[in-house]
Amino acid sequence: MVLFGYKFCNHNATGLQCSCEQIFNNECSCDRMNFYSFLHASFTVFQILTQEDWNMVLFNGMAQTNHWAALYFVALMTFGNYVLFNLLVAILVEGFQESKEEEKRQQEEDAKKKAQEEEDERKKELELLLARSTSPAFLNGTQGADCTCVPKPPVSHTEDNEASQELKQALAEEERRNEQKQNTCFRRFLRKTCLYKEAEYSLFCFGPKNPFRIRRIVRCLQLTQKKCFDYSILAFIGINCITLAMERPSIPPHSFERKFLTFSGYAFTLIFSVEMAMKVIANGCVLGRGAYFKDGWNVLDGTLVIISLVNVLFELFATG
Question: Are residues 1 and 106 located together in one domain of the fold?
Fold first, then answer.
C-alpha cells in the first residue's frame, strides 16, 4: 500500500493518475487488482503468490511508476511463492509422516503380540510333550517315612517312540523358526554359492591379501585423504559442466571448437573412469564391506561414468 497505494487508479476524464482526494470523490476508476485498500492489496499479493496473471500486475506497476517496480514483484513472487509452497509441503509431509508412524507402531504392536502368542503356544506344546515322554518312578507315602516302590506302568514301545518323535519334531521346528528370524532365504542361498565365499574379493580377482590390491588401497587412502584431491575432482567436474554447456547444434563439425569439445569429453571420461577403477579395486564393486556401489553418491558417479563410456563407444563406432 505504501509503494502502490493509488498508482493503479486513473482519472475518468483525463486518464492521469488520481490523487487521494479524487479517489475519495469517486472521480477515478481503478484496476481490478490494486493496492488502494488493505483488502485489495491482500488479494493482489495473494494473486501474485499463486502466479495467476501476476505478470499483468507487474506490467501495470511498471507502467504506472517506473521499471524499478519490477524488483518488488519478482522478489515477492520468488520468495513468497517459495515460502508458501514449502509451507504447504511441510503440512502435507507432516500429516503423512504422522499417519505412517501410527501405522508402523500399530504393525509393530500386532507383530509383537502375534510373536508372543506363538511363543506361548510353542512352550505349551513342549511342556505337554515333555510330560508325556517322562513319568514318576516313585510315589511318596502318607506319613513320609515309609516309601513304597510303585512299579512303572507298562508303556509300549510304540507310544514311547511317538512321544520321542513329536519332541524331536517340536525342537526341530523351534530351531527352524529361530534360523528364519536370523537369515533370509536369499542369504541362505547366497552362502551356498561362490559369491559369498569370495565376497571380500574385488571383482572376484583381487583378494584381500593381493599385493596389487594392497598397494592400490594404500595409494588410494593416501590420495583421497588430501584436500587437493577433492578440490581437483571438483575442478574437473566444474570444467566438464562448462564444456557441456558449450555444446550447441550450430558448431561446425570440423572446427577447432568441435575438436576441443570432443577431446575434452574423452579426457574427462578417462579421468573419471580411472578414479572409479581405483576405488573399485581398493574397496570392491558390489559385495563386501565398503563396496563401491553400496554408497549412493558412488552409484550416481558410476552410472554417469558408464553412460559416458557407452557414449564414447557409440561415437567411435559411428565415426570409425
Answer: yes
**Predicted confidence (pLDDT) per residue in 71-86, tens digit:** 877 787 777 777 777 7
Please, which pLDDT band fits residue 90 given cuts at 50, 70 and 90?
confident
Domain boundary among 115, 140, 169: 115
- Does residue 136 lie in a domain region? no
Regarding predicted confidence, which is higher, 148 or 58?
58
Highest mean pLDDT pick, 6-15, 88-97, 106-115, 179-188: 106-115
- Give the global pTM: 0.39
CATH number of the CATH domain containing 301: 1.20.120.350
The per-residue DSSP string of the chain comes to -TTTSSTTEEETTT-SBPPHHHHHTT-EEE-SS--SSHHHHHHHHHHHHTTSSHHHHHHHHHHHS-TTHHHHHHHIIIIIHHHHHHHHHHHHHHHHHHHHHHHHHHHHHHHHHHHHHHHHHHHHHHHHHHHHH---S-B--SSSSS-BPPPPPP--HHHHHHHHHHHHHHHHHHHHHHHHHH--HHHHHHHTSHHHHTTTSBTTTB-TT-HHHHHHHHHHHHHHTSHHHHHHHHHHHHHHHHHHHT--TTS-TTSHHHHHHHHHHHHHHHHHHHHHHHHHHHH-SSSSTT-GGGSHHHHHHHHHHHHHHHHHHHHHHHH-
Structural contact between residues 19 and 46, judged by C-beta atoms closer than 8 angstroms: no
pLDDT of residue 267: 92
pLDDT tier, 150 (very low <50, low <70, confident <90, very high otherwise): very low
Provide the domain count of the chain.
2
